[in-house]
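Sample intake sheet
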Amino acid sequence: MIDVLAGFFLIAGAFFAFVAAVALVRFPDVFTRMHAATKPQSLGLICVLIGLALRLQTITATMTVLVVIVFQLLTAPVASHMVGRAAYRVGLVDRSRLTRDDLAD
């Protein structure tokens, strides 16, 4: 039963990573691409790591997976925020599509 559950998490993680990759190519602007780069990609990585921990079933693998998950959840939003700010400052953002612009002069 554990192998089936691990396989489910591995397939779900691969699916989310694939969806994120397709969205990066298909989405029109920086902000929607940022969303695709952080949300489903992080969820996909977490699912793959959970599947790995279930498959290996060792305390070392589980602790390593937990550290990687925490690190991913802490760094992905910060990186996405910094990419968004940099894109805005360089001028890659279509300001006419924004509903609220807190960084405007």
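Comment: The mean pLDDT is 91. The chain has one domain: 2-94.
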